[in-house]
Design a protein that fits this description.
With about 120 residues, this protein is mainly β. It has strands at about 5, 10-15, 20-25, 30-40, 45-55, 60, 70-75, 80-85, 90-100, 110, 115-120. Strands 2, 4, 5, 6, 9, 10 and 11 form a seven-stranded mixed sheet that branches.
Amino acid sequence: QVQLVESGGGLVQTGGSLRLSCAASSGRILSINAMGWYRQAEGKQRELVARITSGGSTNYADSVKGRFTISRDDAKNTVYLQMNSLKPEDTAVYYCNADLRIALWSSNNVYWGQGTQVTVSS
């Protein structure tokens, strides 16, 4: 079955950078409609950080525009999130999300990664 494998989280200082990656691993993936990153800070709701569709359209939370960049490697079924100029407000657990189809006879389904902690010290 499909699993989303995340990596790249860690602890950085304000102004630093991190690069998150998320690979969708499975014996079969027919197509990926969209992949993205969400985050959930302590005591807050999970929110969209960035999303990229199969057509290349991107969406970003206002709070990260100009600092974060989402990209894809279709051959690897992998999505990346380059995070620059990190702020303490970016501290959260970041979750990979994928909307994908595994077979011609199936519909799209949504999958979630287990989350990776990003901590930005002040």
